[in-house]
Design brief:
The chain is α/β, with parallel strands linked by helices. The chain has a domain at 4-146 and 176-204 and 265-278: Rossmann fold (3-Layer(aba) Sandwich). 44% of the residues lie in helices and 14% in strands. Helix 8 packs parallel to helix 12. The termini are far apart.
Amino acid sequence: MTKILVTGASGKLGSAVLAHLLDDGKIAPSDIVAASRDPAKLAEWTARGIETRRADFDDVESLAAAFAGIDRLLLISTDELARPGKRLQQHQAAVSAAAAAGVRHLLYTSMPNPDGSLVSFAPDHLGTEQAIKASGLAYTIIRNSWYIDNYLMGMPHNLQAGVWYTGMGGGRVSNISRDDCARAAAAALAAPPEGNTTLTLTGSETLGADEIGAAVSSAAGKPLKVVRVSDEDLAAGVKGAGMPDFVVDLVVSTDANIRAGNFDLVTSDFEMLTGRKPQSVVEYFNAHRAELG
């Protein structure tokens, strides 16, 4: 039997991975472990026959206990973004704990081309990938492209105003839904690719700001004008909306990364893992019309 553990199991990506593992049926619930800083949040998985464990990335002893007896570990990147360098420290601790526990295969959720990315948190992913490769563990690095879901955070407000201010310029991006990334991660957990490998999950096409805006407008049934602005003006607008500095940096650096062409890539890795096509941006927004307002 193979014991599988998913960290961050109370989060959106982790819970979706667990759901796909159960729906697929290739792994018995008794062979799956859901881990979280707060196991009390995992009651739904206990009810479905999944073991739960405490895994606090700031508590090395908890990681050692959580990873004991685990064959395959999905390390989902933490949401620690407010303190620079903190997330990398957490990931490095988890990688070391996995190696010490004798985990046979480590899977990690990263981002496309972190070594050349302008996104503010790219160094966290690059450093984690380097730690994994230096650990001696067998690994699969899964680089998730920018989630379509992320647009839902700002688009309802943009639609109310009728304007989307963006720093994307003429850049293009291949978005993929969080659920598709979870589906692919579940497939990789059930049957890891042979050897040490790095995969990049993307949609099946790249889109510019005008095409994304048109998809949002069509789904919502409301007009949306796309206005391209400088990094400075975008930063001022995000800060003016009351966002903390690390969010301002994240938004501006992500748009700059798109503008630089660093998210302009399409791979077949999702289809290779899942045997299906990823959900398109248009399909996603149509399915989430209510959330657009």
